[in-house]
Amino acid sequence: MTQPELREAIDGWLAGDPDPSTRAELQGLVRAEQLSEVHERFARPVAFGTAGLRALMGAGPGRMNRAVVRRATAGLVRWLLRSVPEAARRGVVVARDGRHHSVAFAAETAGVLAAAGIPAWVFPAGTPTPLAAFAVEALRAAAGVVVTASHNPKGYNGYKVYGPNGAQVLPADEALIAAEMARAGPATAVPVLAADEARAQGLLREVGPDVRQRYLDAILAECRHPGRGRDVVVCYTAMHGVGGSLAVEALQRAGFESVHVVEEQQEPDPDFPTVDFPNPEEPGALDRARRLADMVGADLLLANDPDADRLAVAVRTRRGDLRQLSGNEVGVLLGHYLLTQGPRKPRPLVLATVVSSPQLGHIAQHLGAEYAETLTGFKWISNAALAREASGAHLVFAYEEALGYAVGPAVHDKDGMGAAVAMADLAGWARARGQTVADVLDEISQKYGVYASLQRSITLPGASGVTTIARVMEGFRQDPPAAIAERPVLALRDYATGRRTSLGESRALELPKSDLLAFELAGGARVMLRPSGTEPKLKLYLEAQGAPGAGEALQDVRVRVSATVAALADSLLALACARGLEKDRG
Hints:
The protein is 41% helix and 20% strand. It is α/β, with parallel strands linked by helices. It has three domains: 205 residues, Alpha-D-Glucose-1,6-Bisphosphate, Chain A, domain 3 (3-Layer(aba) Sandwich); 234 residues, 3-Layer(aba) Sandwich (Alpha-D-Glucose-1,6-Bisphosphate, Chain A, domain 3), CATH 3.40.120.10; 135 residues, Alpha-D-Glucose-1,6-Bisphosphate, Chain A, domain 4, CATH 3.30.530. The strands form four sheets. Strands 16, 17, 18, 19, 20, 21, 22 and 23 form an eight-stranded antiparallel sheet that branches. Strands 1-5-4-2-3-6 form a six-stranded mixed sheet, with helices on both faces. The chain has a five-stranded mixed sheet with strand order 8-7-9-10-11, sandwiched between helices. α4 packs across α8, α7 packs across α10 and α13 runs parallel beside α14. The two termini are 26 Å apart.
């Protein structure tokens, strides 16, 4: 973008921004001649990614602000009126988390909908994302919008769009919404109805408490062994998010009376004062919860992220230490438990993403269940599950390794609260059998093999980071390695071209195209890399597996397989640096 083009874009944005605070922010950046910062905000407008729109908050088209939200909702309105019959009668669910500006962004969304004659079903307070997704179908709404940045740092916010089936819309519809958004013109030209007038016209409606109770009933119905082992001691943290009260109520209604919460993290706080990064995957994020768990002698630690769609788990082992489980370990535990316990449904179905461990697929095959893989993101998982359910399958469980789980068919998105209840139910069942959750995982490993996985993320912010990530991905495509950690590459799956290549032969992949590379290695190992769809990161996924040799202890197998994964990670990182990563790393 040339200087005259940037100046013209700035003037146009200032003229169309309805928010005086962001106008002043942009004007201040221009006066201070922070041109690189201004250029970055205009060079890459906020776009739909893995989970809707998501970006840092601030002024300009490359940030989340009232103007972007207003224009996005204008695009949504145009798409709805053309794509969803009776949208003006059915309305749209509007929910928000507890972040800075979420109240204002939700109000903008509702106001634009109302001005177009589409009722907005609004939750009266901060709402967990799973409950909002559930409400879309429960109210037979035409769509849903959740203002949230999920687990991102405090400077971020976002905008998720759900279709009438209660699942996040797929990229084809996101592209249509984005095209309508581009045609909407400046934000000040988008009609917005004031809340009082919208309410008087019946276009602003409050979601009633019955939806919350129906949601609780639905997730509690998935308990396989109600009443067993309910003396399990649970430690829970809401991570300063909006899931605290509902998660605790769900656990208590499931019969777990000894639930101890991290009080300083239980209520929503947009500044996340006790964590640097409100993602339960991040090192140190669970420090306070671990201290409380040790203080109260908890058997199980459960942690939601700020919008409660993810769940982190740590379990007490027989040695007395608290072991945090990976997303893959939780996925395998819950998937195996839900498939093997309780009444068996016809055509039981489990799903996972391509970057998740293949172990659940092997278990499902052994148990005679249907299994499918999708691209990364629950928009793919939920829509794939709905398509298979339409042909007679019954969803039992779905997950992605980044701590996202769906227990049963009630919520067509990942649900950290439903997963928390299921995990506590599993822990109670294990307790009743004289076991720990770690013992159950050992049983699964003995029967199906030991799988070890590792995910590494390399943060590369700004426009230069985007360039570096693209350069690295292209470097692997143009110069694929023959071996990684001395393990020969047997096949390359390039999801951007939709081809799998092995020994010079190529065949089509079944999944939609995506910027993802997967290298299949000798010995059943694999490595994958892709740009994150929600953060400025390059993500690396490493996986290895092994079975106990004659007389080999299970722990020794875990050490051996984990060492393989670590070697794969080091080798892949070195290869990434050789393909351009070092040019933008500190």
